[in-house]
Amino acid sequence: METILLKGKAVPKFDHALIAFLGVPEVEAITAGSVRQFGIENGDGEVYRIIGAESEQVYDALIGRLRNLHYRIEALRESSFEKFRAVARMPPEL
After folding, report:
1. Pick from 25-29, 43-47, 76-80: least confident
2. Are strands 47-53 and 36-41 parallel, antiparallel or unpaired?
3. Spatial CB neighbours of 9, under 8 Å, sequence gap ≥ 6
């Protein structure tokens, strides 16, 4: 598991707590070992963070944790990046 912030995007105030809850370490760049990736949107509807997982099982576990926090997961049918599979949209109560 690994995650990066996208430059120039607004970072929600709870981001640090979210990443601690997910248990994903920050890196300088997503590596080739992250075979499944998804983005997390900020309150402006922009993807501000990308999370990579090394297996389908880890990916599913991370998505499950976000669903438990009431994030809406939108699977991407077509993506210009083969490994990028979904976007997690913030729950309205945040």
Report:
1. 76-80
2. antiparallel
3. 42, 46, 47, 48
**CA-to-CA distance for 41 and 39, rounded, in angstroms?**
7
Residue 3, both tokens: 């995650």
What's the predicted TM-score (pTM) here?
0.90
DSSP state of 11: P
* DSSP 3-state of 77: coil
Distance of alpha carbon 69 from alpha carbon 71, whole angstroms: 6
Is 86 in contact with 37 (CB distance < 8 Å)?
A: no
Question: CA-CA distance, 33 to 80, in Å (whole number)?
Answer: 18
- Dmax over CA atoms of the chain, in Å, equals 35
Of 39, 74, 78, 34, nearest to 56 by C-alpha is 34
Find, among 4, 56, 6, 49, the residue nearest to 30 by Cα. Answer: 4
